[in-house]
């Protein structure tokens, strides 16, 4: 159905693609895998006509095509769900789904009622209940992703490309998405699926293509492959320990660094209490939407709490601002790195220093040399793929952006580091790096709170785990009690049965 070959694309200073090929059949789900910065998203944008290749050929069916802009590719039946959302925050859900294709009534006027009805149908089929009249900016990140997916379902595309569609959804939503994708496969759609979650590739895909540094490495059927062979192909070495072993056992009677008591935030957090300990990695697990992020935000001062107290280093707060939290040594790596985290149009250096400006000031001046030096250290220790501290964050791949965000807060915090889905969109190699960094920070005595929807990560990294369900904490697991089953049980048990 779709085949590309010999694709090359250079950006100033980077050869993003250096001769990639990819061939996808009708009725096939084809995984495109590779490390952060391998060139997956760039290839996607070329297939979709958003960027033009320097060299190479794109064939759709038998015909060689050359796109002049994305509208042409779309008209030819290529639909892409991008890694970074392209939703308009102030438009409603229905307006976003039908953007540029709003149905018209007999008088030629925009037919909002029809758009809303059809949007509701599509979302129903995806198994999500979202108010189609609501503005997109008011939705959770997971719901925004479902809107993004719904856009692709209006009419059946010939080629559907999904660039990390499950980065912000989990559990049931992922299952429903897979069911839809399998149906589209039966209908003969050629699907390209990009994900860093290897278990999804094994569960969903028929064949896979590995790319590395912009080059084609291999194309193979998924059946018969093992996780280890796939990782070796992607990373070029095997990863014995994804989760680093403890160098020293975590402290047996650690100091309480932060205490949150009876926190209430709207209807999302209904009286939660937790304690964070020096040198301990505390997991905060639960389904997407269970209130984990809101609880963490409230502790950091990013959301107002209606009730409750936060005690940090002996000081109690009924209201707290992010400024106060930061000055007390709390860092927060948000889940929405684009919206709330990084300054996309700024270089790496400024992004890393953004939360610890006092370290790069000389009097009232900004010390550019120091900022550059700090960035160089972090680029090396986190293995951030870039040209140097001056690289603009907007030109970096998703996983590398995430490392920049973590580097910023690791510099700024000295008591508590809160990480919301720290490895979302991060490749296996870099993921191991991030885990190593987290362990290192804990070993220095920092209390870590890690929100995660990935069970292996919760189990592999946490010394203690709080599990949330529908705004409440339903259990605390310690050491050996931390198993995937125990977490799922606490996260999903329904109220009547409990
Ligand atoms: N507009 C741009 N300007 C400069 N460099 C770019 C631009 N877009 C991408 N790059 C570079 O091209 C390379 C490939 O990036 P790409 O986003 O395609 O990687 P990816 O495989 O999608 O990674 P990830 O898994 O992190 O999403 C990277 O080195 C990236 O920094
Ligand atoms: Mg990408």
TrEMBL record:
GO terms for cellular component: plasma membrane. Gene3D superfamilies: P-loop containing nucleotide triphosphate hydrolases. Keywords: ATP-binding, Cell membrane, Membrane, Nucleotide-binding, Repeat, Sugar transport, Translocase, Transport. It is a peripheral membrane protein. Residues 2-238, 252-495 form the ABC transporter domain. One of its GO terms (molecular function) is ATP binding. It comes from the Bacteria. It is found in: Cell membrane. PANTHER family: CARBOHYDRATE TRANSPORT ATP-BINDING PROTEIN MG119-RELATED, GALACTOFURANOSE TRANSPORTER ATP-BINDING PROTEIN YTFR. This is Sugar ABC transporter ATP-binding protein.
